[in-house]
Design a protein that fits this description.
Layout: H1 2-13, H2 61-101, E1 116-117, E2 122-123, H3 132-159, H4 161-165, H5 168-226, E3 237-241, E4 249-252, E5 261-269, E6 277-284, E7 287-295, E8 301-305, E9 308-312, E10 321-329, E11 334-339, E12 342-347, E13 361-364, E14 383-391, H6 397-404, E15 422-425, E16 429-432, H7 435-442
Antiparallel strand pairs: 1-2, 3-14, 3-16, 4-13, 4-15, 5-10, 5-14, 6-7, 6-13, 7-8, 8-9, 10-11, 11-12
Length: about 450
């Protein structure tokens, strides 16, 4: 500040001659000699030569002091602006250095600098969108934003009055640094485009691999659903339902006619707890529980006809093969329950005088809440079953004993147990089996 004031006074004193007060000139050959005085002393000697201002007026001492203060404030503002610009350049340089030094996908320094979002310090890879191309586009926009900020900074420097007042060396250094930053950013954008292409190729390859694996899995499931066709005879097979789910089941292709009596027999083996689930269910439009055999939770086995319930004294959850038969007639709703050829229970008033409706869907292993679907996993059958047959009459007790003892073969006259009449779904399988031989092993 003192140097600036001295320079100003020197420039005022270096003219060809001083103009005298009120337009009078000094005598030729004369000179002014000034001495410094304390602020509280009265001036003596030569006065400060007046400097004419714009419009011909001469500044007073107060006006000169104000001018000096204004010059001092301008210099301080320029110094502060230069300091801020230097700090901005240091900050940008530091961020670029961190970008270049951070490891990339291949583990080499500098390859993964784009993983940080410049200006925010945020690791954008921690919350990748599902589409990798969106990640690359987002990072490209971030780089472009930073480039625009640098260009704006350059324009501000050139437009600012303080830029012209900077020393030539500092201005050249700023220009070089801004140029370097711009080239580095352009290089990073090019790397991002390369990474985008690589990510797209890797994503396509991964998608093809996943689709191939899914196709192989679907083929395997289809094979399991078809099961083995190498049965000794069309009825020597079993259906396996190993999991308690709402998607493993078998389906009988044929449907039932209108029935006034029936006998249902089947072999089954299960050790599920609590309750074996639903060995079979028959649903018709308007009545999902037309015929259902179910053991659910800690309840006993129940036979439902037209949503009416009878509890059966059967015990079959010991993991062994058992032969189960239930008979019913619409006359007085009479029913009987057989296990391994022995009658264990009988009753009446089970949906009396109600004919079983035709045209419904027979499902093995699931209880239907709507016709053919809306299964509940908690009511699913877990285990194996075979020889599911239905007759349109009440079989005699001796016939049921002979079937259970494997001394006679009586296919159902309306639903016989044959391979081409049973489809399996959701991972349920069909396997060869000779039920009577396996039952002898359980004894």
């Amino acid at each position: 500040m003192l140097a600036l004031l001295a320079g100003l006074l020197f420039s005022l004193a270096s003219g060809a001659s001083w103009r005298a007060v009120r337009g009078q000139e000094s005598p030729p050959g004369s000179r002014f000699v000034c001495t410094s005085l304390p602020l509280d002393a009265a001036p003596s000697g030569c006065p400060l030569p007046p400097v004419p201002m714009q419009g011909g007026a001469f500044p007073t001492e107060e006006e000169l002091k104000a001018t000096v203060l204004q010059l001092r404030e301008t210099i301080l503002q320029q110094k502060e602006t230069i300091g801020n610009q230097r700090e901005t350049i240091r900050e940008l340089t530091s961020k670029l250095n961190r970008c270049e030094s951070s490891p990339g996908p291949d583990g080499k320094p500098g390859a993964g600098g784009w993983r940080k979002e410049l200006g925010k310090g945020k690791d954008t890879m921690g919350d990748l969108p599902r589409d990798p191309a969106q990640v690359i586009d987002q990072l490209s926009r971030t780089m472009q934003t930073l480039k625009d900020r640098l260009e704006n900074l350059e324009h501000q420097l050139r437009a600012n009055v303080s830029y012209a007042a900077l020393p030539n060396e500092l201005r050249e250094m700023l220009q070089r640094r801004l140029g370097d930053l711009e080239r580095q950013l352009l290089s990073k954008v090019a790397e991002l485009e390369d990474e985008k292409s690589l990510l797209h190729n890797e994503t396509s390859a991964h998608r093809q691999k996943t689709e191939s694996a899914l196709s192989a899995l679907l083929e395997r499931v289809s094979e399991l659903e078809k099961g083995s066709s190498a049965f000794k005879s069309p009825d020597e097979f079993k259906v396996s339902l190993p999991l308690r789910t709402n998607y493993l089941y078998g389906k009988i292709k044929k449907t039932l006619p209108e029935l006034y009596a029936f006998t249902v027999c089947l072999w089954l083996r299960s050790s599920a707890s609590p309750g074996i689930g639903t060995p079979f269910s028959y649903a018709v439009p308007g009545q999902a529980n037309e015929i259902v055999l179910i053991e659910w939770g800690n309840n006993p086995i129940e036979l439902l006809i037209n949503d009416k319930v009878a509890q059966l004294p059967l015990f079959i959850s010991d993991g062994k093969w058992h032969h189960i038969c239930v008979t019913w007639t619409t006359r007085d709703g009479m029913w009987e329950a057989f296990q391994d050829g022995e009658k264990l229970g009988t009753g009446e008033n089970l949906a009396p005088w109600h004919p079983v409706k035709p045209g419904g869907v027979l499902i093995l292993g699931q209880e239907q809440d709507t016709v053919g679907g809306r299964f509940d996993a908690t009511q699913a059958f877990v285990g194996e079953m075979s020889q599911f047959n239905i007759w349109d009459r009440v079989l005699k007790a001796e016939d049921i004993v002979n079937i259970a003892n494997c001394s006679t073969n009586m296919p159902g006259n309306i639903i016989p147990w044959v391979d081409n009449n049973v489809d399996v779904f959701g991972g349920a399988t069909k396997w060869p089996v000779e039920t009577c031989e396996e039952r002898l092993l359980d004894l």
